[in-house]
């Protein structure tokens, strides 16, 4: 009875409030699950750090220190405490951004990561943009022209992308486009005399130079990044166009495509509106995974192009047994994976009505 | 009665490892504003006949005919653009299973409206009004709610009614219904067919009902073609079906169980005697 007595005008806002709460609750659930995953990631890097046969004490005192010094430093570093206490301390350190000192660079690991990660982020982002902007339309075109010459040509291009080693393509690209034709910049992110001209805000030089309004720096940075990004883009394009093609072929043989054709709508609309929409969900996964693998830092590409990114940093750290740097970089890469996975989960729900509970 | 569709010597073939295989082998029929039933077993070519009228058979399939004329349109020589103007607007098709024949990620309302918008420029409000009206015509009680739903949120029977609404909204003159009830529960089959029947009569349309169900076809059609192995083997008025003397039709009829069945075993078609 009390419900019946509620004025009708009060009901719509209530409903909206309910919906807002559900949305907030959804967001909360996502955040909690991300936090848990991240904690798991920290636990794994922590235990990996304990298991590897690299003694952090010797890394500090050197292998000729007397046993008393060794023991004193060991106690000071808290390595005699119970493992759980050490773990909690590690979690607290990570949460406050303290990842220890790097023995190969001599600086704090967190500072190193803040410096190298944007370089990789910039390269990977431009690479995936190239891969998606070319790969998706190519895959769709190949599928809708199944069996034609263009379809075969796109498939061969994809195969080449799989088969050609990245470092070879990078080297040939440098030799032809930089050394001979001089139409792109050489290795590194910038030429000498442009270095340090714009204040680092985001660490992405393309963005920072635009923020500073310095087009000369922007053009120089672009000439440096375009070749490695194109090489990375070519590899993700190979994968993305192949997957797009096979998803599209699958959709184009579905009954609802015939339904769409029966309606008399244009073939372009059949392809993009009816066949492409359902594949956006698996495509988000494919693109997300491609992007994540680019963000790990392509060691080959970063080495060939002397790109000061995370792949380069991680390799150097590994070769120097610099555990703090290795674990720090691993944490960053793991976090990128978590973020991209959660991001695609959220996108799914926006894209696919069947995934909305 | 002036025919709206004339079919002469229609052939459909597909490539196979050893030469092309004909799945429709030169059939003839014509159709006015009447209800024609095509019955036959699986693989008899009845669906291919329906699809070739809309020119929906894709490469490498091939359709030939001496004559395939729909009103003033020569279907086989029409351009793609002319064909698109015929599809949906003048000839439409209801397919078998709404679970697969409706797009899973587009709302029901948008899918119904699309068929209309593709052929006529109308203000948005009018499109919406027509969509709701069409849903009411297929006996959907709460159309305002249903237009916002996605296909996975409705039952099979309702999905098929949505399909009918979608196909009839541009007011075509010919509807091809390809096994429209085979995927549905028996309890909703009659309802769906009654709706088709009512709308066909009201709009004075032609209907081609493709089915493997003899009784159903004889109940809802005026005339029946019986197909087998890509050929029309028997043709009769629906009410004369029971009196057909053709051995294949008799065989099919005999193989149907009856409610007051006294036979221990249902007879099977003796294919040896009819082998070509």
Automatic annotation (TrEMBL), chain A:
Record's bilayer topology term: Multi-pass membrane protein
Entry keyword annotation includes Plastid: no
Gene3D superfamilies associated with the record: MetI-like
Pfam families: BPD_transp_1, BPD_transp_1_N
Subcellular location as annotated: Cell membrane
GO CC terms, sorted: plasma membrane
Transmembrane segments: 22-48, 123-144, 156-179, 221-240, 281-301, 321-340
Keywords: Cell membrane, Membrane, Transmembrane, Transmembrane helix, Transport
GO molecular function: dipeptide transmembrane transporter activity
Domain ABC transmembrane type-1 span(s) in chain numbering: 117-348
Main subcellular location: membrane
Keyword Cell membrane annotated: yes
Superkingdom as given in the UniProt entry: Bacteria
Family statement drawn from the similarity comment of this UniProt entry: Belongs to the binding-protein-dependent transport system permease family.
Protein name listed in UniProt: ABC transporter permease
Automatic annotation (TrEMBL), chain B:
GO biological process: transmembrane transport
One Pfam family named in its UniProt record: ABC_tran
Entry annotated with the keyword Signal: no
Primary localization class, coarse: membrane
The ABC transporter domain, residue ranges: 5-254
The keyword Transport belongs to this UniProt entry's keyword annotation: yes
Localization in the cell: Cell inner membrane
Cellular component GO terms held in the UniProt record: plasma membrane
UniProt GO MF annotations: ATP binding; ATP hydrolysis activity
Keywords in alphabetical order: ATP-binding, Cell membrane, Membrane, Nucleotide-binding, Transport
Recorded topology in the membrane: Peripheral membrane protein
Family: Belongs to the ABC transporter superfamily.
Name of the protein this chain belongs to: ABC transporter ATP-binding protein
Species, as recorded: Harenicola maris
Record lineage: Bacteria, Pseudomonadati, Pseudomonadota, Alphaproteobacteria, Rhodobacterales
């Amino acid at each position: 009875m009390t419900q019946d007595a509620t004025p009708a005008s009060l009901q719509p806002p209530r409903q909206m409030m309910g919906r807002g709460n559900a949305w907030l609750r959804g967001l909360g659930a996502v955040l909690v699950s991300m936090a848990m995953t991240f904690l798991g990631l920290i636990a794994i890097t922590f235990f990996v750090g304990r298991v590897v046969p690299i003694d952090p004490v010797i890394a500090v005192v050197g292998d000729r220190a007397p046993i008393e010094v060794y023991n004193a430093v060991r106690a000071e570093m808290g390595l005699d405490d119970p493992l759980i206490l050490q773990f909690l301390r590690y979690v607290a350190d990570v949460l406050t951004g303290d990842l220890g000192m790097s023995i190969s660079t001599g600086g704090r690991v967190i500072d190193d990561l803040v410096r190298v990660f944007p370089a990789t982020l910039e390269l990977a982002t431009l690479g995936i943009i190239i891969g998606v902007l070319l790969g998706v339309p190519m895959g769709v075109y190949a599928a809708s022209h199944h069996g034609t010459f263009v379809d075969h040509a796109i498939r061969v291009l994809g195969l080449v992308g799989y088969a050609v080693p990245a470092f070879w393509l990078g080297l040939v690209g440098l030799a032809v486009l930089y050394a001979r034709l001089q139409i792109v910049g050489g290795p590194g992110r910038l030429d000498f005399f442009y270095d340090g001209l714009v204040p680092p805000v985001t660490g992405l030089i393309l963005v920072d130079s635009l923020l500073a309004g310095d087009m000369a720096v922007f053009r120089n940075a672009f000439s440096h990044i375009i070749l490695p990004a194109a090489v990375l883009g070519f590899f993700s394009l190979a994968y993305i166009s192949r997957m797009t093609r096979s998803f599209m072929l699958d959709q184009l043989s579905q009954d609802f495509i015939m339904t769409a054709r029966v309606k008399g709508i244009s073939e372009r609309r059949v392809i993009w509106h009816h066949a492409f929409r359902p594949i956006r969900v698996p495509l988000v996964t494919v693109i997300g995974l491609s992007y994540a693998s680019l963000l790990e830092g392509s060691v080959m590409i970063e080495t060939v192009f002397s790109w000061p990114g995370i792949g380069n940093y991680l390799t150097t750290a590994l070769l120097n047994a610099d555990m703090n740097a290795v674990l720090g970089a691993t944490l960053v890469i793991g976090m990128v994976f978590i973020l991209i996975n959660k991001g695609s989960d959220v996108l799914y729900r926006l894209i696919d009505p069947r995934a909305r509970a | 009665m002036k025919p709206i569709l004339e079919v002469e010597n229609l052939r459909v073939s597909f490539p196979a490892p050893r030469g092309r295989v004909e799945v429709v082998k030169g059939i003839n029929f014509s159709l006015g504003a009447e209800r024609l039933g095509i019955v036959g077993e699986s693989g008899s070519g009845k669906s291919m006949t329906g699809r070739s009228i809309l020119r929906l058979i894709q490469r490498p399939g091939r359709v030939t005919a001496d004559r395939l004329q729909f009103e003033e349109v020569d279907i086989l020589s029409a351009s793609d653009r002319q064909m698109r103007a015929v599809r949906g607007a003048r000839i439409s098709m209801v397919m078998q299973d709404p679970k697969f024949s409706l797009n899973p990620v587009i709302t029901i309302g948008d899918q119904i409206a699309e068929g209309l918008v593709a052929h006529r420029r109308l203000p948005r409000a009018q499109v919406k009004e027509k969509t709701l009206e069409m849903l009411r015509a297929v006996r959907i009680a709460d159309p305002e709610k249903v237009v916002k739903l996605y296909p996975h949120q409705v039952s099979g029977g309702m999905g098929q009614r949505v399909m009918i609404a979608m196909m009839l909204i541009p007011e075509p003159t010919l509807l091809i219904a390809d096994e429209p009830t085979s995927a549905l529960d028996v309890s909703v089959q009659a309802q769906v067919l009654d709706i088709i029947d009512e709308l066909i009569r009201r709009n004075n349309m032609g209907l081609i009902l493709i089915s493997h169900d003899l009784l159903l076809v004889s109940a809802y059609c005026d005339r029946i073609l019986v197909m087998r192995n890509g050929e029309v083997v028997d043709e009769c008025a629906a009410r004369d079906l029971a009196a057909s003397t053709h051995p294949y039709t008799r065989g099919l009829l005999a193989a149907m169980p009856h409610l007051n069945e006294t036979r221990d075993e249902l007879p099977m078609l003796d294919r040896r005697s009819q082998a070509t």
